[in-house]
């Protein structure tokens, strides 16, 4: 063991001072009394070497001859005093927080717990140290040669206003795809396969948002029920791509495979956004295992409770990472920069971001985490999406995150669901959601793309289940229905679950088309969930986090059914329409005013009578709304300052169970209207024989349907 260097943290392969290659090990362990690096041979034989150099609380050393592929871990010694939060235990092999790759799985036997889990007095078990060796039951870090300059990669750099996000699970999206070779299904290489990318490009999405791909662990309570953590919101390695998604191996090969996946998606014009979980770790609460951070410095890495034996839990997962601590904040930001600069990703969606924005206790938009992100020259340039809530007091922060951030807008989700199930009394809130949620985001120079609009996400019903079930059906999760939300805002169209009734089935498909059309024609950034565009179902399970099986995987055979194939085609057509028309993806908020004296208002609202809504009518009971978007009055300019000119559109949404006669507005709004979309049709297409309807015509809008018209203004040249 040579002295080595305290920087950078982690295990880094490099050339030593005499020209010999080896690996530098550096671990921040504030308060620890000793650190040993433990090297493991292929047969499991362990060699321990103490790190004797200590610089600014970083224990470090250089070991000549340690090459990429070497498996390793740490043992950290110190006081055992759970009453003050000190839980050092050198009998437990710890995963390096900076490990670039991880080999093996956690086996949650009693030996991996720092305390005597099987102590007869359960109330004090966490205070009794367990001295059994955990090494045979825990994964090891892997030394990786991660030299890669990315010169052949071209990031798409899609502007926010042009972005369409597709949320997918690496394993679930590829596991049943018939066009992907069996040995690649469920892996990063499978997602990079041309068959997978062809679906994404054919649909027209611009970014994939990957459910967690940081190394994660499976919870003990799931293992006891014969289940696994499928979604991956249980991180333990913030630098390591989850090894189980690698087709090429777990000895460091997963790093290169992930990079090749990113390159393949970039080459297809698709950005890669990671769903990241920095709010908690897989070590859980007071009775959880000692896997990494707890054994390195429990008191620094986690927010402890009033009784330091326990933890402040703003996440519902047992612990909360203490990102107000400088070294914890460094771990998070180092991880983020690594995924951008060395792994090539284009942005992040932060799970329970409000927990990261807490200062001492309360959510604080001037918190250290948000301040560091705002000034970081790498991170402030990538896409940043907040899930703007946590489970603690004051944790709901939709609309409150500062400029630079976008947010999952659950107000959009709830309003659109309520409108189409007939649970709204008026259309006021719907108007805000269709036009970019200016009530939430029009401050601080934010733009409509601050709102990530969604109707469904991985958490909750699929789009098909949303119109097929009133209640959750989570029996397979083994939690007696306690898991998953009871507030689904769903409507089963009169029958719970599967049905052979053709009228109910037709209504359900129409409702799916309505929800999909509303999402993709609204201002903001739309997010689709993998499989929703082809009628994927989870059988009414609204919390499939532990369903690593056909329930959670995308069923590609649905595309063999004409009805679901038509839904996929409709989604692609709507995305193409959005891409072709800047008025449908405005980069600025609407003012309701004309941009020129002779112009129209940039947005106008109409009732079924063809007149603009009065203030009183906004408050009146209604299930019909017309939104007119003026293509000659778009509220933003082109790159050279020129006006952006487009077609004008009239969107009609009608949620009542009875049809309605809607009068098309007259001049100056339009002299005639061309029907482009009608969700009353199984394909969503306008009837081919439908001519342009003159202004003032009362057109029949079917019950529970969406229509989109292109407005033609007599004497005006068509927009290009």
Helical run tally:
16
Overall mean pLDDT stands at 95
* Largest sheet composition: 8 strands, parallel, barrel
Outline, from the CA principal axes? elongated
End-to-end Cα distance, whole Å, is 69 Å
In total, the number of strands is 29
Coarse structural class: alpha/beta
Gyration radius from CA atoms, angstroms:
28 Å
Portion of residues within helices: 10-25%
Poorly predicted runs are none
Strand order of the largest sheet: 12-13-16-17-18-19-20-21
Which percent band covers the strand fraction?
15-25%
Pfam families: CBM_48
Family: Belongs to the glycosyl hydrolase 13 family.
Enzyme class: hydrolase
Domain Glycosyl hydrolase family 13 catalytic: 167-578
Characterize the structure shown.
The protein has 16 helices and 29 strands. The strands form seven sheets. The protein has an eight-stranded parallel beta barrel. Strands 22-23-24-29-26-27 form a six-stranded antiparallel beta sheet. Strands 4-3-7-11-10 form a five-stranded antiparallel beta sheet. A hairpin with a 2-residue loop joins strand 5 and strand 6. It is about 20% helix and about 20% strand.
Précis, in short:
Helices cover 20% and strands 19% of the residues. The chain has 16 helices and 29 strands. This is Glycogen operon protein GlgX homolog.
How do the strands and helices of this protein lay out in sequence?
Elements: E1 10-15, E2 21-28, E3 34-40, E4 46-50, E5 53-55, E6 58-64, E7 71-77, E8 80-81, E9 86-87, E10 101-103, E11 140-142, E12 165-168, H1 170-174, H2 188-192, H3 194-203, E13 207-210, E14 214-216, H4 220-224, E15 235-241, H5 253-267, E16 271-276, H6 293-301, H7 326-341, E17 347-350, H8 353-356, H9 368-375, E18 383-386, E19 406-409, H10 410-420, H11 428-434, H12 438-441, E20 451-453, H13 463-466, H14 502-520, E21 525-529, H15 562-580, E22 603-606, H16 615-619, E23 624-629, E24 648-654, E25 660-663, E26 672-678, E27 693-694, E28 698-701, E29 705-712
Parallel strand pairs: 12-13, 12-21, 13-16, 16-17, 17-18, 18-19, 19-20, 20-21
Antiparallel strand pairs: 1-2, 2-6, 3-4, 3-7, 5-6, 7-11, 8-9, 10-11, 14-15, 22-23, 23-24, 24-29, 25-28, 26-27, 26-29
